[in-house]
Amino acid sequence: MGVIRRWLGVCAMVLAGCGQSTDQPANGTAGDDAGPRHPGKLRFLALGDSYTIGESVDPAQRWPVQLAALLRKEGLDVGDPTIIARTGWTTDELAAGIKRDEPQGTYDLVSLLIGVNNQFRGRDGEEYRRQFVELLGRAKGFAAGGDASRVLVLSIPDWGATPFGASRDRRAIAAAIDRFNAINREEASRAGARYVDVTPVSRRAPAEPDLVADDSLHPSGKMYAEWATLALPEARAALGGR
After folding, report:
1. Has this prediction a pTM greater than 0.85?
2. Does some domain include residue 35?
3. What total of structural domains would you count in the chain?
4. How confident is the model over 36-89, as pLDDT tens digits?
5. Contact 87, 22 (CB under 8 A)
6. Is residue 188 part of a domain?
């Protein structure tokens, strides 16, 4: 039992970002020293936290990488995504990471998935709104032509549905996640960005344990595949005719 408790403590720090517990860089393809395998004519920038960096899964299983592969299958020459994300990041930490990495040029597709660590750390919802709006503005600025319709906002998954969350108040976590998602959905709509709701998939985890990675907290490659499939129509529409 002591080993289990220690492991769950590690998982908590991974989610909450205590000590920034990752050795993966926050830019490029997030640890792939060989560089993008598919450069592509269409550029994709993915912004976020552990869910975008793909904590505990193989790089090829990250949802942005899987989405790019699906788009290529449909004849869109999308390169492997540039990823600015790190396990544990909150909205303000992502903003700092973007400022540090300074992505160059414009992108044909930009994704934004952020907020779980704000919720986990008990941050205020209105603070999240302000910082999320700023990040949306940055994402729009990176999009070709400043076109908000090229920006995909993904909802925050429900970590309370994972084995790690089993000992917590799952109803309270779900309610908090829903409040944060109401904010990011509203602001995405106001900005003219596209929205992809992945939260229902995450809530299937208790009945489908293979949707969770071996760390008992983060999504598995299988769950990320479902996210990529959900994002595909919006990404295709964002890139339509290009």
Report:
1. yes
2. yes
3. 1
4. 577 789 999 999 999 999 999 999 999 999 999 999 999 999 999 999 999 999
5. yes
6. yes
